[in-house]
Design brief:
alpha/beta, Rossmann fold, 43% helix, binds adenosine-5'-triphosphate, binds magnesium ion
Length: 282
């Protein structure tokens, strides 16, 4: 019943395709509604039920990925501040075995990191066989914050789109499934979330005055994100622009895309050890 109510929970998921950026297309974020919840019509209670189903399915698929031990999954999360990267990590992955999932957070580069090329710190953190790795921020910061603040000359960052495509193509050709999510919130929603952080003593620790400075560069970030989405959505590493003003919808979209992608791998449990049929356990 739920599956009929939310086309996105069906496999394949045509409803989720609307959020996938077609490689080579030009993206204008103004054309993407951060309040969109149109793929789901079942109401809050049904949404909760569906989220539970998605979480369980992801748990099973992650175990299968681990058991099979020969494929790798890289999930890239990017967003404006307060966009919900942490929320996705907490909610979408709440059911999975922590042993098989790693979160790699990319902060301001350290001195040793700055003394190398920008991919130097990224490559060692990509997933190995049987693993899911979630990038909380990523190498895309090197064409986002770096571009917005002119941290390197344009002649340097401008080459990085092609370099990133080549890097990701290499990972994909060697067996990594790559899924990239831009969690799309509006500027007004960011204001509301920042206000909520300031007002709530249990959330004040999350408030970072630097986020206000970044907020003043909102339009420059939009331009930088549009360049990323237009130039780096590839068949082997698609971007999804996820409507993220409604947290429950954001989580459902990301979870459903992940489930579909993992289903699509056609994974199999490894064959049992020979002679298992005649094993007797005393
Ligand atoms: P949260 O605020 O929810 O804890 P976060 O991802 O915003 O999560 P912060 O420590 O607040 O974490 O911010 C990390 C900062 O590091 C961001 O401002 C980001 O732009 C910056 N950063 C990441 N990569 C780079 C980079 N390559 N060059 C410069 N700054 C970077
Ligand atoms: Mg932050």
């Amino acid at each position: 019943m739920l599956r009929a109510e939310f086309a996105g929970a069906c496999l394949p998921c045509p409803a989720m395709e609307r959020y996938r950026i077609t490689p080579g297309s030009t993206v204008h974020l103004a054309d993407h509604d951060p309040d969109d919840t149109s793929a789901f019509t079942g109401g809050k209670a049904a949404a909760k039920e569906l989220a539970k189903e998605t979480t369980q399915r992801l748990e099973e698929l992650q175990e299968l990925l681990f058991a099979e031990g020969r494929r790798r999954v890289l999930v890239v999360l990017q967003a404006m501040d307060t966009g919900g990267k942490d929320g996705v990590i907490r909610h979408v992955f709440e059911g999975v075995n922590p042993a098989g999932v790693t979160v790699a957070s990319f902060k301001k580069p350290t001195a040793p990191e700055l003394a190398h090329d920008y991919l130097w710190r990224v490559h060692p953190r990509v997933p190995g066989n049987g693993e899911i790795t979630i990038f909380n921020r990523s190498h895309y910061e090197d064409v986002l914050v770096v571009r917005v603040h002119s941290l390197v000359p344009e002649a340097v960052w401008a080459k990085r789109y092609d370099q990133i495509n080549a890097f990701e193509e290499t990972l994909a050709a060697e067996g990594t499934t790559i899924l990239k999510f831009y969690l799309h919130i509006s500027k007004a929603e960011q204001a509301a979330r920042l206000r909520a952080r300031v007002a709530d003593p249990t959330k004040q620790w999350k408030f970072n005055p630097a986020d206000l400075a970044e907020r003043s560069h909102w339009d420059a970030y939009v331009t930088a994100y549009e360049a990323v989405l237009s130039q780096t959505s590839a068949p082997w590493a698609p971007w999804y622009v996820v409507p993220a003003n409604a947290k429950w919808y954001r989580d459902l979209v990301v979870g459903t895309v992940l489930v579909e992608a993992l289903e699509g791998l056609g994974m199999q449990y490894p064959p049992p050890p020979p002679g298992i049929d005649s094993v007797v356990i005393e």
